[in-house]
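Hi everyone, sorry if this is the wrong subforum. Our group has a chain we'd like a structural model of before ordering constructs, and none of us has done structure prediction before. Sequence below.
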Amino acid sequence: MISAKSKEMKTHLTADEWAQYEQEGYLVLKALITPDWIERLQNRIDAIMLGKADTDYDSLLMQLDSENGEYDSAGKQSSGFKGATRNYRKIQELEWDAEFLNLMRHPLFEDACNRAYANSDVSCYRAMFMNKPAKRGTFLPFHQDRWNFLDRDQELTVWVALDPATRENGCVQVIPRTHRELINPSHASGFLTDGQAAEFAPEEKRVYVELEAGDVVLLHNHLIHGSDRNHSSQSRRAFSACFMDSTTRHLKNQLKTYPVIFGENAIQAKTRETTLSQS
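Answer:
Right subforum, don't worry. Here is the predicted structure as tokens:
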């Protein structure tokens, strides 16, 4: 069951909405996730951060926020719990969590995946919580979401606001219509050089994507984007999932597979008990 208000749920994009996404490289969908659903997700991620969740922490990739706001100073991203604190920057592998897998399977996300990937089975490259704690947060340089160790590029990420996202607390900044070419394909994960950022992402071209909790943004992976630190007392929690064609393979590890979200072999969420019993 996805939501108590599923009968009122928006399940498909209009032709105009998809055309806007394809033209601009992003699309904002207001109030897509209901307040009661957002509250459940907030409670779940807080429980995970505070060590109160019934989950297999060893299977989660967790990264603490930087102390000084610099990207290169953020904590090491590695498996396992790193202490009870709300000052995590990223938590990954959430596609195996029932609450977040349920969110990922929103019918509208499936519709968007069908459009992006021509009705093929769809996998998840990564599903993660992204956080800018109050008066903290790590600066994220401008980049395109692209990983050159995969045999094909991804075309769709969904970004769900769990808190209001404002200019003051570090909302995502995008450069519209920059998704049609790769700016720095030699970089392993698509970060722009300082010179490229100055050329392609000057202040006058930036759109600050301000959102309310429950709003969703569809992002083309190649759209240039970044974000500032959080200068406010309001945290900026969000959930992001990158969807891809299920036939995508890791070029350096041919045995690696990615969990199917939409398709015949779609995964089920793991509980702590089943995960531990299989270890």
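For your construct planning: The two ends are 29 Å apart (CA to CA). DSSP finds six helices and 13 strands in the chain.
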